Amino acid sequence: MNAIVAVNSDWGIGCEGTQAIVIPEDRKYFVKMTSGGVVIAGRKTFEDFPGVLPNRKNIIITNDRGFTAEGAIVVHSVEEVLAEISSDDPRKVFVVGGASVYELFLPMCEYIYVTKIEATPPSDTYFQNLDASPEWALEEQSETKETESGIKYTYCTYARDVGATVSVARGRSRTTAPTPNTRPPA
Question: What global pTM score does this model have?
Fold first, then answer.
């Protein structure tokens, strides 16, 4: 399982239920990475989408037992999500937000694909700072790109840094992921 997220310079991911900065090239990257796979989203994140994402298995996790979404699979626990993805290729399963869904599934992710946007708009929702976490190591980083409007961004791939040895090249000790909280988001 993986996660994919766009973050601002301060690791902010949203304000008042939506992304503050939308980069069209990043949306294309998101489609490229997730097409043909599975996306796992919380209800509020799903409601910010234009609808069910095409060419993907859409799984929505929510506490709202009355919530339905035509064309999507609605579940109410981490265990139900895991049952739904049990026969899917884990390399094509992507957690896509929001914050509480990332918190639930990050301990199960192997890779996190991060678009780092060089801007700091107002945010009320944040992603874990992977650069400060001993559990994650930066594996790849693109050259800095720039939008037509002058916003700079980079694509980064972080890998879980687990194992029994110390990674001297990265200078990080390796740790074991914590047990996830299984309570779904609102």
Answer: 0.86
